[in-house]
Amino acid sequence: ILTFLKRARLDSIRHFNGIQIDRQLITALAERWRKETHCFNFREGEATITLKDVAILTHLPIDGKPVCVSDHPPEDRDGMPGWVHFIHSHLGVKVPVKGCVDATDRMPPMRKHQVSITWLTKYFRDHYESHPLTEESPEDEKERYARVYLIGMIGGVFFSKKSSNLLSCG
């Protein structure tokens, strides 16, 4: 899938998979953050983090097209949310909406335009254990896997919420 990650200019994202978070440092920085000035207040003076700083540290691009899906959620069809159809067409995953509870995280895989990242990654992990991705795999299969990998990294590592593992789709 590296070809697809490079094409999207997001190949450096793979280095963040096992990143360790220093909670004491984050707590110390949060205590020094001043929302009035959007700066950290230190003894030596004020400091801020710019988008360019983040780009230098992460090696991720800050120019070009944004990583987003759409400004408007797809229309509902056949009594199903539009995002169910969107996820099926882009990831090849049929998301069960009603009456399904995932055994690992005890929540439906999708609710109100949110998809359980745990459910999605488990779905693909189970699928690729029985059907491993190889050099001979079809390009659309590799691209689907790359999309799920990026969703997992962006939604689960970069923009994760401590209160849930849901990725907003709308």
TrEMBL record:
InterPro entries noted in UniProt: AminoTfrase-like_pln_mobile, MAIN-like
GO biological process: meristem maintenance
Taxonomy, superkingdom: Eukaryota
Every Aminotransferase-like plant mobile domain range: 16-167
Name of the protein in its database record: Aminotransferase-like plant mobile domain-containing protein
Upper classification of the organism: Eukaryota, Viridiplantae, Streptophyta, Embryophyta, Tracheophyta
